[in-house]
Design brief:
The chain has 184 residues and is mainly beta. It has two domains: 50 residues, Beta Barrel (OB fold (Dihydrolipoamide Acetyltransferase, E2P)), CATH 2.40.50; 129 residues, Beta Barrel (OB fold (Dihydrolipoamide Acetyltransferase, E2P)). The chain is built from no helices and 18 strands. A five-stranded mixed β-barrel has the order 8-9-12-14-13. A hairpin with a 2-residue loop joins strand 4 and strand 5. The radius of gyration is 17 Å and the shape is globular. Bound molecules: zinc ion. The site of zinc ion (ZN) has 8 residues, from loops.
């Protein structure tokens, strides 16, 4: 069952639903009555119940402005280390392997942010944009409204956070948390 479509980020092999409830669309495949993700990307469900995964990752190069997806691996204030998903070109060849990039506290949102942990936590999945590339480091930004956390996990129990109006609540322990979310 799909828990929370708004934050659904799919990775290859992730179970998305059953063929009783949904239809397998672009970026997915069906096997033994179950629908799985074939690529990394954001999940959407049409009115026809077709599950589609749209990926921005099929880019040839990474340059400032490129949209990337990644997971927060570590936080060393004032910076978070983010592991990017591999990026493939149109032929399916991997052109950018899993790679660590940095998210500085000043690149989280407009206005002053006191600490990275106020807005993102370890394990969260981000949609971000490459801000600049210098000295072998790639810096990403989630400042724009369409960027930010797309899937969040409880800082207490690692349960998935579900949207409850404007805030987030852990589906497991009930803890309320907040994030800099990507607007839908
Ligand atoms: Zn929890």
């Amino acid at each position: 069952m799909l828990l929370e479509v708004r934050f659904m980020m799919a990775f290859p092999g992730m179970l998305l639903g059953t063929e009783e409830e949904y239809m397998a669309g672009e970026g997915t495949y069906a096997e033994n009555g179950k629908i799985y993700a074939n690529i990394t990307g954001e999940v959407s469900i049409g009115t026809d119940k077709k599950i589609v995964i749209s990926s921005n990752n099929r880019l040839k190069t990474v340059r400032p402005g490129t949209v990337v997806y990644g997971r927060i691996e570590e936080i060393f204030e004032p910076v978070a280390l983010v592991k990017l998903e591999p990026i493939y070109d149109e032929t399916g060849r991997q052109v950018f392997s899993s790679y660590f990039v940095t998210l500085h506290v000043s690149n989280i949102k407009m206005g002053y942010v006191n600490s990275v942990k106020e807005e993102v936590r370890i394990g969260d999945i981000l949609k971000a944009r490459v801000e600049d590339m210098k000295k072998d480091f790639i810096h990403i930004s989630i400042k724009d409204s369409d960027l930010g956390v797309i899937k969040a996990f409880c800082s207490e129990c690692r349960g998935e956070l579900l949207s409850m109006g404007s805030s987030l609540q852990c589906g497991n322990c009930g803890k309320m948390e907040r994030r800099k979310l990507a607007a839908v």
